[in-house]
């Protein structure tokens, strides 16, 4: 580990200002100028290339340099080879010289990469501490495994030596039981607030890796014992927890006994004493006994929570860790979507935790019920059974309500999964959605899903609200029925009897019912979560079928191999039809992709192929021929139906669509491999990335956004290739790696990488670039999943079959274009002299001499950090947050009415007890009885002449309580769900109206966090917490009012207690709030990591990086676990102290009862004691709820801040500037001095561009990767507003139009094909605007009709997430068919045929010419032959217009950039 000094020195060196040109004292690093430029393609005679070392001084010599030793291998070794294979070894000498002179000192300093800011450095150091602290799980069946836990029974222990260790591990009995170990953290939070470095790291016994190992051992044993069909995850969870769970239940049982003894024994004796003349000491004894039992109960109850908290976080970590490990063993998600999986990690984690923490407390209900029945039967006799039946009936009622809640919750979760999946898809495709002006349409889809979700939430919330309202009222209703039956039968009721029963029912019974409600809900929802996790754990893993060949010279082989992919079975789901709308099957919502059973589709048939070590094998064929499937077969990602597949050695994989991490450019290449400077810079040069890195704001330390959003398609592909080359594996599987790069860059990569660095490796090279096939050792031609031809290029040409025809067609096209160019060039040279200015820009750097350019540009320009750190809010939740929630819920009047229903409901419940006290005080009403001949005054309530009046009023309270409970539940549910729905709609609109820069700099995990976890909080947990809080506030208020009415002397004591309570709450709510915010923020990286992992499963498995990604997941989860555990402990820390302080209320009330005996009626004194006693539990819970409510409102604050802070794009429609319906009529485009940058702090990507495009012109745009070609489309569609200049279409300045009016009139076929989950029809025509005939016509024109018509469901055939059930080329063709249907006047093709074979590409070009002959077309292409037929060619270089003329004019000038590109492309064709 480097010291902090080294880190700071490095950072200082990074931000040193750039020196003047003449200054020789700057931190210059290796500069390979010309290596990626156009005239430096290595040829077989490049040995004369000279080298030039940079003249600047090196980095400061005090920087400690680590030399990292590696066995450099073929193609990356020390340059002792000659140039016969096209690799110029002088680059090795250049790098050696630069390293010797110290230019790369900084790069060698850290093996693990580099972080850009102090926060990231501190986080990296913190994450490394986990490795030091972590311990590995070892199965130990002996009793010794409990030795660490048993140490908690030592009364007092020393605090941990390490500052960042979790103190709970060294806590003694006192500290563990009272949570005193967290006091110092809470006090620090009050003094200075909490920062990330203040929080200790996760306990080694609570770490994800440790507990996952434990659960995995138990789960595997269960699978072996019971088999997959009968395996029970619940049984495994019981084995995982049983010892600590049984201990927790025992302690809980003891606390229940103590809670039972308090009111039933000591309070009854105390109230009896109030009616007698016994000495004061007797009353004191009963009071002390009451307080002692309550004190012990509080401490033991806190211990129960402490044990359960650790149980909960351990099971939570174990379940999700096990699920992540399962994902690592899969190549795809099967019938699960990314949204569903992320929802599992987001919401089910909390439910598993509640399952263990709250679920076991369900035993309290039956214990209290049985004890209560026995006691009340003993106290009041058999008539009390009527009331007890009412009380006991609540248990099945509560169970039914919980089952209903669980049922609605399950249905809600399914719809929530659908919404989150759709959100994930929209975030992935947001660029296309904006370009097509589909925001409103997709917003409607989301709104429809949200409407269904809200309907289910309403039902669930109403059931839950009734359940919540009934919990405190059922004991009172039971008491009313008990007393009415008891007195109605002619029995007497004393104050001691009545108030003891009330105290018991208000205290033990009410709290047990509250816990019961939460416990049943936790068990039902936790059980559902475990079922969903089990469904992941039981998903079919790929059966390993790769075997090692017996012949050591064979790298890989197929012997009669038939391989298949999974096929999803569709199960249509009936949905309610929208009102007033026809029944159409057009929305993705109408189809749920659910698998009934696993089916397979064979895509590779009877493959026989042997590949020797060191061979370069090219794979070619048409779209959908099975080329990518062949690569997947070698990766072990398919299902082997028959035959054998052999593979020897390690693999590197470059996918057709590059998978990019949200990390630095360098970390994307290293992928956790140790840093070797020489090998690294050779890879940078070979993959033609030198200039790309030089242009980045922080060189190769620049952060790359999610999915490589700030890189061009070519840069992403070359970065992916660089990762593979640096990995230095034995076999390379390259799936069309040259499709996204320019011809000359492709040639450079082919010579330097495929023929150079990989010249002694085994390489399987899938390509549509047929010009490279003659240089390959052998060619495999695939058609319809079968190998039709295999052999050398010469052999296949001589055989003159399909391959020869395909190659000849390709070459004929190239030759025809070449002949036309020669004729045009000759003609133009005869006619005129071409202006010399057309080729000036950028030609000076095209020297064959290799030079050094700066790979590390000035860091003062920018840190290179793309993704902004998520803002951690500080201080109180602002009043504006509560205001926005109230306004969303209907405003202050509605909110006041809702609060009034709470007051009415709780007031009626409390007043019923007051009425009972009045009745008990009235006694017999001085009624007289005749006993023999003697008249005596009765002492029985049953003889009171006003008994019917008292009974009627008392009985009416049952109806009033039930009625107000129903009204309260309905109004609260409606108000809160109206609020959450309005907040969802507002934040959704604000997010999707944000400019693309927001999506570039914000990880999708962070946005998904808002729409998944935060929305779940606002939908479910905020209303639940808020409702309980309001109810308890009303209950506490009524209790204190009763105590003050009975004992007015209690008022000054109440003021003192209130001040003390408020002080404790205000001091320590800060820590709780800060921990909750940290927990919120710690979730986003976790979700982003899960999303990235799922998208890159194939690459991760190919490189064998499962351990790296699993380790990162474990650390991220441990970070979340740590703050999550501390947050819950902080809540309980506050609770136990408030409980002890609330005990003072009971103490003061008992003292006043002792002192005022005789002046206050025993019935009212008993009432005050009963209501004071219930405060010890409910008061702390309410104060804690107020803090928890504030903590929950952090989610409201986050949503509210997104709604307010996000800047929106220009409006979709500007009524005063709406263009004509037929606009654009001609399609003329004019760029004038256009300058554009993607974000204010980034450099210009388009620099003062001016050109005009006439109506119906077809403009070809060419240029080096990163020259700004795709940025033209970004400017035209106004994804980014211009920094300067104007763009006009048909003389209208597009900046004055609404974005919907502009974008809906343009069409684009993007570089990366985008398909949505749904059907083929839905992807072609998402909003049902075209007939089947038009859809089939578009498919026919794009040569996809046969492919779709062969599918079982034709146009209704499913499209899975990311369109994975179609090849990339097929996806591109479907996107092209979509554009054909749009029929716009202006079409922008952004390298739209990059993934399509040459023959299909030629046909598509003809289709485009015919279908869009009356349109203006702008075609960005890497294949120069695709733009040869264009009207004019626009050559871009470094964001500027280098050349703009007809192909004839540009080719006539040999020095023009375009002519040079064509020449290089021809060289690559002939080589």
Give a quick precis of the structure:
With 1471 residues, the protein is of the alpha/beta class.
Tell me about this structure:
This protein has a 6-stranded mixed β-sheet with strand order 8-9-10-6-11-12, sandwiched between helices. The protein is elongated, with a radius of gyration of 38 Å. It contains 42 helices and 26 strands. It has 1471 residues and is α/β, with parallel strands linked by helices. It is 56% helix and 10% strand. Helix 8 (208-230) crosses helix 9 (233-274), helix 12 (364-380) runs antiparallel to helix 16 (495-537) and helix 19 crosses helix 21.
Give the topology, please.
Elements: H1 4-14, H2 90-100, H3 105-109, H4 118-133, H5 147-150, H6 173-178, H7 183-192, H8 208-230, H9 233-274, H10 280-328, H11 338-357, H12 364-380, H13 384-428, H14 430-435, H15 439-488, H16 495-537, E1 546-547, E2 554-567, E3 571-572, E4 591-592, E5 599-612, E6 616-621, H17 627-635, E7 639-647, E8 651-654, H18 665-670, H19 677-686, H20 690-694, H21 713-727, E9 731-735, H22 743-757, E10 762-766, E11 778-783, E12 786-791, H23 793-799, H24 802-831, H25 879-888, H26 892-922, E13 928-931, E14 934-937, H27 947-992, H28 996-1001, H29 1004-1046, H30 1050-1095, H31 1097-1103, H32 1106-1155, H33 1162-1205, E15 1229-1236, E16 1246-1253, E17 1258-1263, H34 1269-1276, E18 1284-1289, E19 1292-1293, H35 1299-1303, E20 1306-1309, E21 1318-1319, H36 1320-1324, H37 1332-1341, H38 1345-1349, E22 1358-1359, H39 1368-1382, E23 1386-1390, H40 1398-1411, E24 1416-1420, E25 1432-1437, E26 1440-1445, H41 1447-1452, H42 1457-1470
Parallel strand pairs: 1-7, 6-10, 6-11, 8-9, 9-10, 17-24, 17-25, 20-23, 23-24
Antiparallel strand pairs: 2-5, 2-7, 3-4, 11-12, 13-14, 15-16, 15-18, 18-19, 21-22, 25-26
Helix pairs in contact: 2-19, 7-30, 8-9, 8-10, 9-10, 9-12, 9-16, 9-33, 10-11, 10-16, 10-32, 11-13, 11-16, 11-30, 12-13, 12-16, 13-15, 13-16, 13-29, 15-16, 15-26, 15-27, 15-29, 16-26, 16-33, 19-21, 23-24, 25-27, 25-33, 26-27, 26-29, 26-33, 27-29, 27-33, 29-30, 29-33, 30-32, 30-33, 32-33, 37-39
């Amino acid at each position: 580990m480097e010291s902090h000094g080294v880190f700071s020195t490095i950072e200082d060196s990074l931000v040193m200002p750039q020196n003047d040109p003449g200054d020789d004292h700057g931190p210059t690093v290796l500069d390979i100028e010309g290596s990626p430029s156009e005239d430096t393609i290595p040829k077989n005679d490049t040995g004369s290339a000279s080298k030039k070392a940079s003249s600047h001084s090196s980095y400061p010599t005090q920087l400690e340099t680590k030399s990292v030793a590696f066995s450099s291998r073929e193609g990356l070794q020390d340059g002792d080879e000659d140039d016969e294979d096209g690799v110029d070894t002088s680059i090795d000498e250049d790098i050696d010289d630069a390293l010797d002179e110290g230019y790369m000192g900084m790069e060698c300093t850290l093996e693990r990469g580099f972080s850009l800011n102090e926060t990231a450095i501190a986080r990296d150091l913190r994450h490394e501490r986990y490795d030091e602290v972590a311990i590995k799980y070892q199965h130990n069946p002996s009793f010794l495994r409990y030795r660490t836990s048993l140490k908690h029974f030592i009364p007092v222990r020393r605090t941990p030596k390490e500052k960042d260790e979790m103190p709970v591990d060294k806590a003694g009995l006192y500290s563990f039981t009272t949570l005193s170990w967290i006091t110092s953290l809470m006090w620090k939070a009050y003094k200075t607030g909490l920062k990330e470095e203040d929080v200790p790291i996760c306990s080694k016994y609570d770490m994800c890796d440790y507990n996952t190992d434990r659960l995995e051992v138990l789960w595997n044993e269960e699978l072996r014992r019971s088999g997959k069909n009968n395996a029970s995850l619940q049984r495994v969870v019981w084995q995982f927890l049983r010892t600590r769970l049984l201990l927790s239940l025992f302690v809980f049982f003891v606390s229940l006994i103590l809670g039972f003894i308090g009111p039933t024994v000591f309070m009854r004796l105390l109230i009896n004493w109030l009616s007698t003349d016994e000495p004061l000491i007797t009353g004191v004894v009963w009071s002390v006994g009451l307080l002692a039992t309550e004190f012990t109960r509080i401490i033991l109850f806190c211990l129960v929570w402490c044990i359960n908290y650790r149980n909960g976080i351990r099971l939570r970590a174990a379940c999700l860790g096990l699920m992540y490990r399962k994902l690592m063993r899969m190549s795809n998600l099967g019938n699960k979507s990314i949204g569903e999986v992320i929802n599992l990690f987001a919401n089910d984690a909390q439910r598993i935790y509640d399952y263990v923490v709250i679920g076991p407390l369900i035993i309290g209900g039956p214990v209290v019920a049985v004890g209560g029945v026995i006691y009340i039967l003993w106290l009041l006799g058999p008539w009390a059974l009527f009331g007890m039946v009412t009380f006991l009936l609540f248990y099945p009622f509560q169970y039914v309500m919980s089952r209903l809640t669980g049922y609605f919750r399950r249905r809600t979760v399914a719809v929530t999964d659908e919404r989150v999946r759709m959100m994930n898809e929209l975030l992935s495709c947001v660029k296309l959605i904006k370009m097509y002006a589909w925001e409103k349409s997709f917003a409607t889809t989301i709104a429809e899903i949200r409407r269904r979700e809200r309907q289910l939430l309403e039902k669930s919330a109403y059931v839950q609200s009734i359940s919540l309202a009934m919990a405190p009222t059922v004991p009172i209703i039971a008491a009313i029925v008990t007393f009415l039956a008891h007195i109605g039968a002619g029995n007497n009721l004393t104050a001691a009897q009545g108030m003891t029963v009330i105290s018991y029912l208000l205290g033990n019974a009410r709290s047990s019912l509250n816990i019961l409600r939460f416990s049943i809900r936790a068990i039902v929802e936790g059980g559902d979560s475990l079922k969903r996790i089990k469904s992941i754990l039981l998903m079919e893993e790929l059966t390993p079928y790769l075997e090692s060949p017996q012949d050591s010279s064979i790298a890989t082989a197929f012997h009669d191999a038939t391989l298949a992919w999974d096929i999803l079975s569709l199960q249509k789901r009936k949905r309610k039809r929208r009102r007033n709308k026809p029944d159409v099957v057009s929305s993705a919502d109408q189809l749920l992709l659910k698998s009934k059973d696993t089916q397979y589709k064979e895509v590779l048939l009877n493959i026989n192929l042997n590949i020797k070590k060191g061979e370069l094998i090219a794979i070619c064929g048409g779209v959908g021929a099975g080329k990518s499937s062949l690569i997947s077969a070698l990766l072990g990602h398919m299902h082997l139906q028959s035959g054998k597949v052999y593979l020897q050695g390690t693999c590197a994989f470059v996918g057709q669509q590059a998978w990019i991490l949200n990390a630095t450019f360098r970390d994307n290449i290293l992928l956790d491999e140790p840093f070797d400077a020489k090998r690294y810079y050779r890879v940078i040069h070979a993959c033609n990335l030198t200039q790309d890195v030089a242009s980045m704001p922080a060189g190769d330390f620049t952060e790359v956004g999610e999915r490589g959003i700030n890189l061009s398609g070519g840069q992403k592909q070359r970065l992916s290739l660089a990762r593979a080359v640096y990995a230095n594996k034995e076999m390379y599987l390259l799936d069309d790696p040259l499709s996204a790069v320019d011809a000359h860059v492709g040639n450079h990569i082919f010579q330097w990488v495929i023929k150079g660095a990989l010249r002694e490796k085994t390489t399987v090279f899938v390509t549509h670039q047929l010009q490279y096939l003659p240089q390959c050792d052998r060619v495999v031609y695939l058609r319809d999943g079968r190998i039709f031809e295999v052999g050398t290029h010469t052999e296949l040409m001589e055989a003159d079959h399909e391959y020869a025809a395909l190659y000849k067609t390709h070459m004929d096209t190239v030759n025809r274009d070449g002949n036309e160019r020669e004729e045009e060039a000759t003609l133009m040279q005869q006619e005129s002299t071409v202006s010399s200015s057309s080729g000036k820009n950028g030609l000076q750097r095209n020297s064959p001499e290799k030079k050094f350019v700066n790979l590390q540009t000035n860091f003062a320009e920018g840190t290179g950090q793309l993704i902004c750190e998520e803002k951690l809010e500080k201080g109180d939740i602002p009043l504006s947050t509560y205001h926005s929630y109230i306004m969303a819920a209907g405003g202050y009047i509605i909110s006041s009415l809702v609060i009034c229903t709470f007051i009415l409901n709780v007031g009626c419940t409390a007043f019923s007890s007051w009425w009972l006290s009045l009745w008990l005080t009235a006694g017999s009403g001085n009624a007289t009885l005749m006993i023999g001949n003697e008249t005596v005054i009765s002492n029985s309530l049953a003889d009171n002449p006003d008994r019917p009046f008292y009974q009627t009023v008392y009985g009416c309270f049952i109806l009033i309580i039930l009625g107000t409970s129903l009204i309260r539940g309905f109004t609260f549910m409606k108000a809160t769900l109206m609020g959450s729905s309005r907040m969802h709609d507002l934040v959704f609109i604000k997010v999707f109206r944000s400019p693309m820069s927001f999506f570039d700099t914000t990880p999708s995990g962070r946005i998904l966090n808002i729409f998944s976890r935060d929305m779940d909080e606002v939908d479910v947990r905020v209303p639940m917490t808020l409702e309980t809080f309001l109810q308890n506030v009303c209950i506490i208020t009524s209790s204190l009012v009763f105590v003050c009415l009975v004992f007015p002397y209690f008022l000054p004591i109440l003021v003192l207690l209130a001040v003390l309570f408020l002080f404790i709450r205000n001091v320590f709510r800060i820590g709780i709030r800060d921990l909750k915010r940290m927990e919120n923020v710690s979730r986003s990286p976790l979700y982003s990591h899960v999303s990235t992992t799922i998208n890159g499963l194939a690459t991760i498995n190919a490189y064998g990086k499962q351990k790296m990604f699993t380790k990162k997941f474990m650390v991220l989860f441990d970070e979340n676990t740590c703050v999550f555990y501390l947050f819950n402990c902080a809540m309980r820390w506050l609770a136990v102290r408030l409980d002890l302080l609330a005990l003072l209320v009971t103490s003061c009330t008992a003292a006043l009862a002792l002192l005022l005996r005789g002046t206050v009626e025993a019935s009212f004194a008993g009432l005050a004691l009963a209501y004071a006693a219930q405060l010890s539990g409910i008061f702390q819970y309410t104060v804690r709820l107020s803090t928890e409510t504030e903590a929950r409102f952090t989610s409201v604050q986050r949503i509210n801040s997104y709604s307010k802070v996000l800047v929106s794009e220009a409006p979709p429609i500007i009524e005063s500037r709406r263009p004509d319906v037929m606009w654009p009529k001609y399609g003329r485009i004019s760029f004038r001095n256009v300058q554009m940058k993607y974000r204010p702090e980034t450099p210009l990507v388009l620099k003062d561009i001016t050109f005009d495009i006439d109506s119906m012109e077809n403009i070809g745009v060419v240029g080096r990767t990163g020259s700004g070609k795709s940025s033209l489309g970004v400017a035209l569609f106004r994804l980014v507003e211009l920094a300067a200049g104007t763009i006009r279409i048909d003389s209208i300045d597009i900046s004055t139009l609404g974005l919907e009016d502009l974008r809906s009139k343009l069409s684009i076929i993007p570089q990366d094909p985008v398909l949505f989950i749904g059907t083929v029809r839905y992807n072609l025509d998402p909003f049902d605007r075209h007939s089947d005939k038009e859809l089939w016509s578009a498919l026919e024109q794009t040569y996809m009709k046969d492919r779709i018509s062969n599918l079982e469901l034709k146009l209704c055939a499913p499209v899975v997430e990311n369109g994975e059930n179609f090849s990339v080329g097929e996806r591109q063709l479907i996107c092209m068919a979509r554009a054909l249907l749009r029929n716009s006047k202006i079409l922008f093709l952004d390298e739209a045929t990059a993934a399509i074979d040459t023959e299909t590409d030629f046909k598509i070009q003809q289709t485009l010419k015919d279908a869009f002959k009356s349109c203006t077309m702008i075609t960005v292409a890497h294949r120069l032959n695709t733009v040869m037929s264009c009207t004019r060619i626009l050559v871009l270089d470094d964001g500027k217009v280098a050349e703009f003329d007809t192909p004839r004019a540009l080719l006539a000038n040999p020095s023009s950039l375009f002519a040079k590109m064509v020449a290089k492309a021809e060289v690559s064709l002939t080589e």
